[in-house]
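Input record (one chain):
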Amino acid sequence: MILVLVDCGLRLAELLNIRMSNIDMQQQLLKVDGKTGERVVRFGSTTAKALFRYMKSRQALNGHSDELWITGDGTALKDSSVETLFIKLSKKTGIAVHQHLLRHTFATLWLKNGGDSLMLQRLLGHTTLMITNRYCQAVGCYDAVEAHKRFSPVDNIKI
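The corresponding structure, as predicted from the sequence alone:
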């Protein structure tokens, strides 16, 4: 679940609304229905392997349910259950973890890895670039600090 969130940048409701019929394992695609409508997102090979293992184990619980994320008794996972999982994970690791932080991590890493803001807007399901630009500005600040380490005018004076 965490890999899907980080790899696809989904909102919690989008994650929980994924159906088995919305997954294309061959093309590594998910059809998600979010607050701005339906869109298709891709997941990487590492996520595909983990998702395949999860899907194989979930068959033993309830192979007939179309919901992707189910509990041990085969019922659909609710947002409150996911939030509880994140609280437990945060306490266990000492690292604050929540769904929106993983969405932010997706966007930040996308940009740091060279992805462009227009594609990021589409992947996140933003209707305008205004929201997406918040991520761009945040990454830009970090990049500027890193660039200064290499290009400091004073540090680069040859005496």
